[in-house]
From TrEMBL, chains A, B, C, D:
This is L-rhamnose catabolism isomerase. The keyword DNA repair does not apply. Pfam families: AP_endonuc_2. It comes from Flaviaesturariibacter amylovorans. Signal peptide: none annotated. InterPro entries: L-rhamnose_isomerase, Xyl_isomerase-like_sf, Xyl_isomerase-like_TIM-brl. Residues 100-287 form the Xylose isomerase-like TIM barrel domain. GO terms for molecular function: isomerase activity. Keywords: Isomerase, Manganese, Metal-binding.
């Protein structure tokens, strides 16, 4: 354990006075009851950390390691445990198979539990070939023209479900790199039909309390078409598969200028929104720190989610699978993830501050000036004290990144794991 | 009549020899039977001309007239008749209400028939306020928060259907400027629900042999969201409405880089593609001459359409509502439309030349090099002689734009209608 | 006068206590000296209001008036005066010729002065034809192939300079709709050369204390190319013209995903940034309220501007021509402009709070986590009290939009000017 | 040698008759003299093949090998030699250091000469760390805040020049992955100034008959800013460096919807266009086969190049550095390169067929309909026989891809080099 309660208290103690003052100020702004309500909701909110985001990512052109990367699943769990100790909002881990195969699920589960972690969605991988694999995914997997490739990919997914069951997961997240690079390469209809058929086979193996999360993605360098390229296609698949199939929205998987908050709203309306991949991006699927490029968009998405979940009677904390999906090329992944979780909590808190009754009234009156004022008023409010308070109340650090740096945790990890330790994955 | 058979023959006669030579050449390239088959299909193919595209368009910043614009519906029909006489592929007209109200439908129908024209989809307009209209469409129409506005918009659409019935149309094309300019202005779910409810009311009034065509559009300067912004939303509406509701794809109504050919393919698969608006664009909804910016994309779209329609057993000529939707800011609209129809016919002919059996085989073998060769081979073929031959066989002009210029038709129109005649519409 | 000092005091008085409390809070956050410094800079900051933004705008498809629009230049000045009385940061007006020709410049100047207004950049118009104009701008103006058209456009600009001199302006802003709609239409080099030659003629007529501001724009529906389409082209022209030619950056005039803050930084570096057009946009040149779509981008732009101007020793308030360029389709223009100015001042204040020394240090250490923390720390700070304080100190309203609504100013304007009054312009 | 003259003749012989017929047809279309002139120009035209494009590329997510990849520089030269034997238009190779270090330049040069190959631009690599390298390029190279990193990168470039001199190259192509991932990370001005200073040091080491080619790129997943992100920045650097510094345009390195042909035209005008990287793309820097997505754009670019080079008196074949830059993820790289070269030659031939006099006349008359007709007339012409004829006349294969397949060359390469041979590089 890199963090202990005494150190946390030593970190928090000198910050409490100022925090109390800031809480008092925001209480005067929005009311003490509202503050309490937001803090309580923040305490329940949890974002799953993906096992693949704990090592260095890279571009097509280069990858730069940083030392102390976790090279085993146990070390990855340790890293997420560390985050959870610091921010008390990262109590779940999302595994990627085969990068992180739990050889002994029981002991892995115990290890996670010792950090207070549960296992969120499991992720399969049919976008890379593994050594010894009979058929290649070069031309796709679930959409492949060759039934043998599809069967191999289906079998892999079924295996991933089995791992997930052993760990207590309750959903399978499906992201495919299936697509085409050249006009003419694919018959789009057949590719779609094959994908659907393959997914039906996987869906049939899904435990009754599981969800199948169908992720879409608009593009990645090298592609001309993606077989599940937009929310319409993901929705179509999910609606044909059945009620436990939902879509998974990744903020970075859209064409330029797409209105993601509207997509989210409509998917919620159709009961087909299943989960979220948080990150931020400037141009494409940049997988950058959440909220680092366009925090207002993140807030708008959250506003739609909150309003839509409330309308459906969904519990914020558990109604959707909340996950980060990011790639850490320059930043220390743990610092990056702390920043991301912080940004998510801030946006959630801001969205909770929107005066929904007044907004509805202004919308009904087509008073767009007022609509904007209401939305921006919540956004302009400095909610950082609420987030810090929720964290402290649960035993986390007031300022997680500062704590992490002051205690030289990366240095400790490097000493223990080595400078050249490299995380499995991409 | 601005064109007579003698003039046409005088125009065609000196061109026949060269055309014959070129036909012989392409027959050697692709086979005489194939040529004949393509010509026969071209002869049956017809693209509807929109009544609003016969005058000068404009941007937000300016509009430049050109003289001789048709200022009455009769003159617009005359213009389309002229196109039809020249290219024999523009035998339908798509009306826009209230810009072109047929006060006396029977006489209008007779006038059109005298040019060999039929009436394709009728278009309603709830994106502008008309003088004396009780409620404004400033904040939308079918999606409006105020039920009175929605009812007014529904009533207008029902009226448009009535005009259409009187003229022999069989579909109503719905394009809405409903959207929002500012985050917070709209509740997306309520906007969608209102739209659906309004469309249900319109659908209920649809004659049993009519289609309702739901058009989507990604953006237009001034908007932050469009209530029917992508194919997914149009599909959702059409599938909830019923079997006679379909989507209408306008080539210029997509986000940057969207793969339109894939969208087309999937909509056909789902039996939800109803019609097409042809044009071309560089950045947004530029409404430029078909094929002037990216003719290969047009060809790829046609390839998907042909393959998909054949798979469904749909007749090319009548399986979809084929329409041009363009805006003529710089070119003489009649010349522009002649160029557009020509580009459509060329793409159609090229798509017909694709060796579908070989392509399927190459796709099944994941031979992407061969897929591309097959697709590009058809595209690189110079099909202009086939298009010209189809035209001549039906009594049209070998080179329509040349004919139009040689006979100074615009000048005649200006003399008759005046230099400052201005078409109704935008 | 729609606003008087007594009413303002009645509005401000009950808000002072809360504002004082909020100021105290932010003083504790960032220091009292820093607050004072920011407030003092805010007091000096001024954004010019464009005369064309006071009436209803529109799209290609429709325009919806709102009543009480200013139909004369005097009324437009009255409107800007009203804004200035409320927010004390709109003390300049940017005129558009020929929409707002000051027939009697001396009296117009006196009228403006009576509201404490000065005249910022004057704008010419060669993107529309005016009645009686010998040559059309259909195919462009300064880039036109026909020298007579170019000369006419040059003469118009010289006339605009003359008006500007009479009013005390010191810069001419040049936005051209010159471009092409079709590949092949233009020879790009000749278009550029013609533009340069025309601008040289205008530049030669520029008073010695004037700047020529060259605006670029990436696209507008209907175009295939813009003759001044990006900052590179504007820079090229400005650098060939001479030291008093600069570029004008409009936030909405870029291709999707362009990094505008980087452009701004480089233009400043090259001493070629002359002015700014503020607005916000989702897709294209949407001309929406400043900060309504992506307030963080606005802040990033300001951060670059402040850092860059400080590095050059430029005074914030006067180093650049700060202007709004927006179009008001749904909102009351005066409310919209109040929101825009507010958003600009907030971003400016946030940018002033960035700890530049710490940021430089973090940058030098490639500590990107810290760079982000520093940048977001300033952004997350609730600077609204600073902006309100700066306004109140100068005699403005604590909450301008609220004041405007409480006093029913639009209603008064409608009563005086009529419901159907329509602003000159587009 | 995988290709010999006898086999080529056996391949060509049965195709000659049909080719002759097709040549006759095109001669009738455009005139025999014009055909001869185009063929002669095609014969002189040569596109450099990059040494890094001969093995399998990949995405961030996966790489799929194909067998028989060249694993040494000698084998890469052999591959390019093979292409050259087949298409007689690939007589140059562009090396990438350190992926392909010519340990013994003299023998490498002889080997290349034995295939009739020369060395075009050499490329440096400061976007990856090499084993044993003192300083990391994680945060950039020529723009780095740390002068030691910059010096290391400069030294590398100087070394690359030295290799290039030994091989007879005459230009250094500089592509940097220098940029930032997060707002705040970089001071844009300092990054630019550092880049300029570094380039000045490299420029100073440039032999007097060499060019420095500055490449720009808009984005790549993971970035928020690119230090040389658009043509404006590349131009600025090149113009500050001196007359032998030029820009390098890669077709895939632009923001969505950029008008590349206009950029090309202006850079030529300013004498700052130095070279070209051909490829095609749908969304980002997809590095797909030239002409596979948007062949008309390629043609438009060529039209501008031809017209602009003629205006400057530049020889087509040598006035610019013509290179392919593609990544081969699905196709056999040799087949892919054959398709790319073919597409380039076709576009070049089409551009040569444009009636420039008539086009100029139509432009001067603002006859945009005619401009389009002229441009499309050349484009619609089936120029494949001209390209084949130029190839055959020089001893190449009439149908290179067919030849390659019929002779099972990939199979031979796999047998000799092994199925798991892997090219050096990414």
């Amino acid at each position: 354990m890199y963090v202990n309660a005494i150190e946390l208290e030593e970190h928090n103690e000198p910050r409490r006075k100022r925090l109390a003052m800031e809480l008092e100020h925001i209480s005067e702004q929005v009311g003490a009851d509202k503050c309490r309500q937001v803090i309580d909701l923040l305490r329940k909110f949890e974002i799953a950390i993906p096992s693949w985001a704990l090592g260095a990512g890279g571009t097509r052109f280069g990858r730069f390691g940083f030392g102390g990367e976790p090279s085993t699943l146990a070390e990855k769990i340790e890293d997420v445990g560390l985050l959870q100790q610091l921010n008390r909002a990262s109590g779940a881990i999302s595994l990627h198979i085969p990068w992180d195969i739990p050889e002994d699920p029981e002991s892995i589960r115990r290890l996670a539990a010792s950090y207070g972690l549960r296992f969120d969605a499991v992720n399969s991988n049919t976008f890379q070939d593994q050594p010894g694999q009979p058929y290649s995914y070069k031309y796709g997997s679930l959409h492949h023209v060759d039934v043998r490739v599809r069967k191999q990919a289906i079998a892999h997914n079924v295996e991933v479900i089995r791992y997930g069951v052993a760990l207590g997961s309750q959903s399978l997240a499906l992201w495919l790199a299936d697509g085409s690079s050249y006009p003419g390469q694919l018959n789009f209809r057949r590719a779609f039909a094959n994908t659907l058929e393959s997914m039906e086979a996987i869906y049939a193996e899904l435990p009754s309390d599981w969800n199948l999360l169908v992720e879409y993605k608009a593009f990645e360098p090298n592609f001309y078409s993606m077989t599940i390229g937009d929310w319409g296609q993901a929705y179509l698949l999910a609606s044909k598969l059945g009620p436990r199939a939902k879509t998974l929205v990744d903020l970075g998987h859209h064409l330029p200028n797409a209105n993601i908050e509207q997509i989210v709203s409509l998917l919620l309306m159709e009961e087909k929104l299943g989960g979220f991949h948080f990150n931020d991006s400037k141009y494409g699927d940049d997988d950058l720190t959440v909220g680092c490029i366009n925090p207002y968009q993140l807030y708008l998405v959250f506003s739609q989610l909150i309003e839509g979940m409330d309308a459906r009677g969904l519990t914020h904390a558990t109604g959707l699978a909340w996950m980060i999906d990011a790639s850490h090329n320059l930043k220390d992944p743990l610092e990056d993830l702390l920043q991301s979780v912080e940004a998510i909590l801030q946006s959630y808190a801001q969205a909770l501050l929107v005066d929904q009754d007044a907004l509805r009234e202004a919308q009904e009156a087509s008073d767009v000036v007022r609509c904007q004022e209401l939305l921006q008023d919540a956004y302009r409010t400095d909610v950082r004290p609420l987030v810090a308070q929720a964290r402290i109340e649960q035993g986390g650090a007031c300022a997680p990144v500062e704590f992490y740096r002051q205690h030289g945790i990366r240095k400790q990890l490097m000493q223990r794991r080595g400078v050249h330790a490299k995380a499995t994955g991409l």
